[in-house]
Design brief:
With about 625 residues, the protein is of the alpha/beta class. About 30% of the residues lie in helices and about 25% in strands. Bound molecules: adenosine-5'-monophosphate-propyl ester.
Length: about 625
């Protein structure tokens, strides 16, 4: 592993000095990329919420910290000042304590996007408890897996969550998840939809009932620099989801600074990151990044197209938003409704546009720039991952010359590089290769919770001494990076990572399925969709019914986000003599690029390919 240069060491320690610590560190960084035992700021003690809240009170007590825009445009929006958010977090923290939550305990959040969600997460951090947020789009079974893995003691949820015209019955889903188990001692229910729900005596409590009269004072509990802050699950190329563990100090140091570097936030700006707190973007740039900098952050409960495709633009004008940070899939979805809609909004307050989660195609970039940014707002195309904690490669708004499709240059302190298939670092500037990071940075995840070996295997064994991102990239003469997509079996659907293995495992649970293979399907809005090839047990069944049931099975096991877009029932799958499915061939079939299928001489059953191509043609027609 490459050690930090003295400039890098100075950079990170000077940066760290800008935060509030209970005790400063003895060692800046230790460990290596072989054992993946990186530690930052050892010896230090701190509390991230003191940095997000308390330190702003003197100057910004009356400043809006959080603006909440409800799903229904007719419902009034609301806000919390830094002073109010501080008190709300303290009160929630005391409630957690009164339910037996202590430092190091894990609390799971399964909620819709309302202020209590953010308050609860910060309340955990306030007392040194560990939050693990599960996106409300995951099924009860997925939730169960994450609860078992993280050993959470408590769940915080809503009765139901509004998203567009849908109402997700979160509490019912929690009940289903916990049925027949005593996994969780306390379920705390925040009222949102006021729908009828069942409450289990001695386990389920209404937040509104418990919070009454709770003390508003709660000193931030000092934690060690390397104590866990949160666990966030994400999909990998194999097996079950991975719980990436982030620690207190390092995460804070890079996330706070990257927010400023990338977005160039100024004191009275209004920052809107559209990501749900269920994802890393919602952790780092809806919640912690803005608050660490005393910024005003906007939280929106709904979806871009509810009640119609003007909603985003209306929100921007209503709240005088200066920064919009969203995903290419949302941009493409809105682009479909035509230029007239955004063109009829001036959006004069907008200064910076951001993109995250997947490569942004040039057309969407240009549309975003012209019709939303009115050709006067720089677009920051930010590349990073759940594992990296914060943004790694991105323009700095107004300072870096942008180029459509390019995440451009690494942020200060970050050292990316490209490696070839043989594991050699590519020294030529103009090149394509596998994107790795050469030196440690503070907000790198420290482990996969409960499985450090898998952590090493996944990120540090392909290229010993480097952190391997799983992404491919190109580098141009100006040093700019362009991300070209995943090089592993992970599919990026609407900016959300879905592991093909996980979906296949779910499909295979259907009793009439023998085997399946899932590959990415180019999709005009989602970037990629899921295309499943399925071998059925008997061919006597009606394929339409079977497909419906397969989708339902995936919905139940993982959740709606992993439902295949297209299913092709096949007789066999192209396999090598060692029994491995040749996915490259499947991808070419799905992309209708059959001329370039390449060498199939190692296949056991090459004749299957032509059959699959013909069957697909019939399906397409
Ligand atoms: O493939 C890259 C893609 O999203 C992956 C990380 O997904 P996740 O951990 O869910 O985090 C998403 C939000 C940070 C990456 O490995 N990705 C993310 N941002 C970009 C991107 N691909 C291209 N350009 C980006 N700006």
């Amino acid at each position: 592993m490459n050690k930090l240069t003295s400039e890098q060491s100075t950079y990170w320690s000077e940066l760290a000095n800008t935060y509030v610590w209970k005790k400063k560190w003895d060692t800046l960084v230790s460990g290596d990329f072989y054992k993946a035992d990186i530690k930052w700021f050892e010896g230090a003690e701190l509390n991230i919420t003191e940095n997000c809240l308390d330190r702003h009170l003197e100057k910004r007590r009356q400043k809006k910290a959080l603006i909440f825009e409800p799903n229904d445009p007719k419902e009034p929006s609301s806000f919390l000042t830094y002073g109010e958010l501080h008190l709300s977090v303290c009160r929630f923290a005391n409630l957690l304590k009164s339910r037996g939550i202590n430092k190091g305990d894990v609390v799971c959040f399964y909620m819709g996007m309302t202020p209590e969600f953010m308050i609860g997460v910060l309340a955990c951090a306030r007392i040194g408890a560990v939050h693990t947020v599960v996106f409300g789009g995951f099924s009860p079974l997925s939730l169960r897996g994450r609860l078992e893995d993280s050993k959470a003691k408590m769940i915080v949820t809503h009765d139901g969550a509004y998203r567009g015209d849908k109402n997700t019955p979160l509490k019912d889903m929690v009940d289903e998840c916990l049925e027949g188990t005593d996994l969780i001692k306390t379920v705390l229910v925040v009222k949102r939809t006021n729908q009828e729900i069942k409450m289990k005596e001695g386990r389920d409590y209404y937040y509104e009932a418990l919070i009454k009269g709770v003390d508003l004072h709660c000193a931030p509990v000092p934690v060690k620099a390397e104590d866990p802050l949160f666990i966030l699950y994400t999909s990998g190329s194999t097996g079950k989801p991975k719980g990436l563990l982030h620690t207190a100090a390092g995460y804070m140091v890079h996330v706070g600074k990257s927010f400023m570097d990338v977005f160039q936030y100024k004191e009275n700006d209004i920052f809107w990151c559209t990501a749900d707190i269920g994802w890393i973007t919602g952790h780092s740039y809806t919640t912690y990044g803005p608050l660490l900098n005393g910024a005003t952050t906007v939280m929106y409960e709904g979806i871009p197209t509810y009640p119609n495709a003007s909603r985003f633009w209306e929100i921007i004008e209503k709240h005088k938003i200066t920064h919009l940070y969203t995903a290419p899939t949302a941009i493409r979805a809105l682009e479909k409704f035509g230029n007239e809609i955004p063109d009829s909004f001036q959006m004069t307050t907008l200064k910076v546009l951001g993109s995250v989660g997947e490569p942004i195609n040039e057309e969407a970039w240009q549309w975003y720039s012209k019709h939303v940014g009115k050709d006067r707002c720089p677009i920051v195309d930010t590349w990073w991952q759940t594992e990296t904690g914060g943004i790694m490669i991105s323009p700095q708004a107004g300072l870096t010359k942008t180029k459509p499709g390019y995440a451009t240059l690494p942020l200060p302190g970050i050292v990316p590089c490209l490696l070839d298939e043989k594991g050699k670092e590519i020294t030529d500037m103009v090149a394509g290769g596998n994107l790795c990071i050469k030196t440690p940075w503070p907000s790198l995840a420290r482990t996969i919770y409960g499985d450090h070996e898998r952590f090493i295997q996944t990120y540090f064994s392909t290229y010993p001494g480097y952190y391997f991102t799983g992404d491919g990239a190109r580098r141009e003469a100006d040093g700019y990076y362009r991300l070209t997509g995943r090089v592993d079996d992970v599919i990026n659907v609407s900016g959300h990572r879905i592991g093909t293995a996980e979906v296949e495992e779910a499909i295979n649970q259907h009793p009439d399925v023998v085997e399946s293979a899932v590959v990415g399907l180019p999709h005009p809005v989602k970037g990629q969709g899921l295309y499943a090839f399925v071998i059925a047990r008997t061919n006597t069944r009606n394929n339409n019914d079977l497909e419906k049931e397969i989708r339902e099975t995936v919905n139940k096991i993982i959740g709606p986000i992993a439902k295949p877009d297209l299913i092709q029932i096949v007789e066999g799958l192209p396999k090598t003599r060692s029994g491995k499915i040749m996915r490259r061939v499947l991808r070419k079939i799905v992309e209708n690029d059959v001329e370039n299928i390449g060498d199939t001489s190692t296949l056991l059953n090459p004749e299957i390919i032509e059959k699959m191509i013909q069957e697909k043609k019939t399906l397409d027609s």
